[in-house]
Amino acid sequence: xxxxxxxxxxxxxxxxxxxxxxxxxxxxxxNEIKQGxxxxxxxxxxxxxxxxxxxxxxxxxxxxxxxxxxxxxxxTLKGWKYGFESPFKAEVYFFSTRIFTNLKWGTANPIAIRxxxxxxxxxxxxxxxxxxxxxxxxxxxxxxxxxxxxxVNEIDDHLRNLxxxxxxxxxxxxxxxxxxxxxxxxxxxxxxxxxxxxxxxSLGIEITQLTIENISLPPAVEEALDKRSSMGILGNMxxxxxYQTANAIENAAKRxxxxxxxxxxxxxxxxGQQMANAMQTPVTPAPPxxxxxxxxxxxxxxxxxxxxxxxxxxxxxxTQVWQNGMSGWQPASxxxxxxxxxxxxxxxPPMPQGQWYIAQxxxxxxxxxxxxxxxxxxxxxxxxxxxxxxxxxxxxxVPELSELFADxxxxxxxxxxxxxxxxxAEWYIFRSGDATxxxxxxxxxxxxxxPRTNLRREGETEWTRARDIQDSALQSLLASLS
Length: 482
Known about the structure:
It is built from 13 helices and 24 strands. The protein has a five-stranded antiparallel β-sheet, sandwiched between helices. Strands 8, 9, 10 and 12 form a four-stranded antiparallel β-sheet that branches. Strands 14-13-15-16 form a four-stranded antiparallel β-sheet. It is of the alpha+beta class. Helix 7 (237-254) packs antiparallel against helix 8. The model is unreliable at 1-6 and 414-421 (pLDDT under 50). The radius of gyration is 48 Å and the shape is elongated. Residues 24-233 form the SPFH domain.
């Protein structure tokens, strides 16, 4: 009896000495688990009991004594209606839930993308990723099966087959320029992670990170980029010729005894002469492009202009100007390079004289110069207007016309000035829910309007109290009625 009891398992545990084991089945040789056996699940592990192919109870990190109360699913599967039957048989799988890092991925073959600058280009990409088990039951059912030792290398091929298409698909559709790839490695990795999370979730695995370490180009493209960089550093074609000549001489010198020495000597002399000519003959620089100026006038941008053309535009010190390199529009007076133009700029042309209009008998007459206004025999009560005024005004209220009435007595206060009668019927009245009209100003007087009466003009849609309407003739009428 003691021999049989010794065969029963008292402690169930897994000490993992590897770095790549995902799942391990607790092995025993025809041994059974007895009631009260100790289950030890270490940090970073989970244990799963399996009964005849069916997943039963799961245990997280901790130490457990196995009884019916902590094996409810297994008890149901076994049909233990009246308590724990000891001993019993069950498979125990341990899962490592730590993060497996530094797993490699890469493109097996070059992938073709279309770059806006270089056209169709074939690239390769590689990097690392990390995973961890988040649902042991899903992983056991979908990937492990009856495997007693499940390691990373048994699933990494499948994971790479998910990662590579996700990365390449995002790169090809991102529109990121080839030369900007390095600055976007992190964003590319994050987007690729999002693309495969759903696929990995069905396996019970989570991808913790995906890093793109490098995206490599074909040797021919790399060589072209290197040459372009060299030309950019050297600055112009003359210096690039010197650079290429020096490289050719160096390569010829490295050939051990190959070729014709006389020919090499002649070639070397020719190259040397070419270098001398390139260094002695200065390259004529391209003429600088004239400064391109823009001006702002009446809300529009005009230009570009050279300095000579800018002078012809008769700009003033207040004119807003701009050219490439300036942070914003500035008055011309604040730009040092324009001071000479401002000093010689002609004065602005005088305002046109014929600019006044008068209202008589409901009609607009004009334009008139101030002298012509005087000939028209206007009075202090004549309604006048010119460009720049908000509305018609009495001539008595316009300072520019004061000289025309130098011999005229000072007019009475504005409130007592009788407005010119208007013969045009353009006013409507809103009273008691009805609109009536149209009326002239004289007819409004007869209607007995007050400052609170709602009025509107012909063509307007909104009603406004008479006292709030900006019309000098109407306000004069209201003042005479008060």
